[in-house]
Design a protein that fits this description.
The chain starts with a strand and ends with a helix. It contains 5 helices and 2 strands. By secondary structure, the protein is an all-alpha fold. Helix 1 (18-50) runs antiparallel to helix 3, helix 1 runs parallel beside helix 4 and helix 3 runs antiparallel to helix 4 (97-130).
Length: 165
């Protein structure tokens, strides 16, 4: 049990080298990215088809602007969420995995923020087209609040609450 203690305090976490930790974190990150990639690719693919429908010509200038912004956000989210795969492929075998994991993690977080923006803009556009009621902005704000809670607030609260400093 002496190896479990360091300076009289119990060690927490795994006993792994920086490279082993980078390997494990890379595998975890890739699994997370796969989920987000699937969602953004389906949403982006759907968005790309909208412009070719007869209804698109009937959209107001505001709704067409929202659509264009949404497509650009979707393209950016797709790029950020596919970026870790390209990063890994281009630096594999160069002995920079810990640095690559950190950069890929940042790209993934950026991709999630862009996915949040894309989903929000998509929802806004769909609800504006489906109904012209004044409650649309409040409904969209509620959904954004829910996304923020699920995607960022709860994870950050958990990190703050349950990790040591």
């Amino acid at each position: 049990m002496a190896d479990a203690a360091e300076g009289g305090a119990m060690r927490r976490g795994r006993n792994e080298t920086e490279e082993e930790r980078a390997d494990r974190m890379w595998q975890e990150l890739i699994q997370e990215v796969r989920v987000a990639q699937m969602g953004v690719q389906i949403l982006f693919g759907f968005l790309l088809t909208v412009v070719f429908t007869p209804k698109y010509a009937d959209l107001s200038d505001t709704d067409q602007t929202i659509y264009l912004v949404t497509v650009v956000l979707g393209a950016c989210a797709t790029g950020a969420l596919i970026g870790p795969v390209s990063l890994h492929r281009l630096v594999a075998g160069r002995r920079v995995k810990p640095q690559a994991v950190r950069l890929a993690s940042r790209l993934t977080l950026l991709g999630l923020v862009l996915l949040l923006a894309t989903t929000t803009a998509s929802l806004l556009l769909i609800l504006r087209v489906a109904t012209h009621d004044g409650f649309v902005p409040y409904l969209v704000a509620g959904v954004v609040g829910w996304y923020l809670l699920c995607w960022f607030v709860l994870p950050l609260w958990t990190r703050h609450r349950y990790t040591s400093r």
